[in-house]
Amino acid sequence: MKNCKYCGKLFIPKTYNQVFCSAECKVSAKAKYNTDTRAQKRSEEWAKHEKTRKCLVCGEEFELQRQYRFKKYCSRTCSKRAERIYGNKREADLEYHNQERFGGNKYKVLERDNYTCQQCGNISQLVVHHIDESGQDEKPNNDMSNLITLCRSCHIRIHQIVPWNKKHISKEDIIKALEGREVKEVAELLGITRKTLLLKRKEYGIDLRR
Predict the structure, then answer these.
(1) Do residues 116 and 148 make contact, with C-beta atoms less than 8 angstroms apart?
(2) Is 4 in contact with 21 (CB distance < 8 Å)?
(3) 210 in a domain, yes or no?
């Protein structure tokens, strides 16, 4: 006779190494073991986990709770602002972008401008713009006075950004670029695809075989 390892009930084992009185006790014991093991593992992880974190939007430090240990923002307000600013991009990418492109001032500018486009008042799809348009330079001017919050629509209007397949390229631009070059080289020079160049050729009636 043996006592069941799970329920404690006396039973006659069918084999010398049987420790559970039934299949149900065996399954229940395994489930309990897995649950206890996971709980212990989570406790150990929480003991090593950071207990405070800096909010990705406002920079304020806040306390983490065990059930919300992966929380990135200090409040629902900052969470909603985060969705408006950069969607679901990775935290590492955002911080790298902030340091490389804006000298660490991106979120300071957004907070200064109250998370609002300074041209139209929009509060969604926000970006930070370099007033002197040095953002693409090797060493952009990242002074706070040179940075301003805009929505994507206003930002596009300022830079007059045109999709690659809708660029206005004149007949003269194509003829000038054709001098001593292959079709592929001309397309790369004009910043369009080979297919777009061929469509432009048809539109302007240009012979590319030169």
Answers:
(1) no
(2) yes
(3) no
86-137 pLDDT, tens per residue? 555 555 556 666 677 788 888 889 889 998 999 898 888 888 988 887 877 7
Q: Tell me the C-alpha distance between 75 and 66, whole Å.
A: 16
Whole-number pLDDT of residue 164:
46
Query: Are residues 117 and 77 part of one domain?
Result: yes
Query: Which structural domain, as residue segments, surrounds residue 19?
Result: 2-48
Residue with tokens 């559970």: 20
Domain count for the chain: 3
Are residues 154 and 179 located together in one domain of the fold? no
Q: What is the SS3 string spanning the chain? A: CEECCCCCCEECCCCCCCCCCCHHHHHHHHHHHHHHHHHHHHHHHHHHCCCEEECCCCCCEEECCHHHCCCCCCCHHHHHHHHHHHCCCCHHHHHHHHHHHHCCCHHHHHHHCCCCCCCCCCCCCEEEEECCCCCCCCCCCCCHHHEEEEEHHHHHHHHCCCCHHHCCCCHHHHHHHHCCCCHHHHHHHHCCCHHHHHHHHHHHCCCCCC
How many C-beta atoms surround the C-beta of residue 154 within 10 A? 21
In Å, how far are 99, 118, 133, 187 from 137, measured between CA atoms?
14, 23, 9, 24
Note the pTM of the prediction, 2 decimals.
0.39
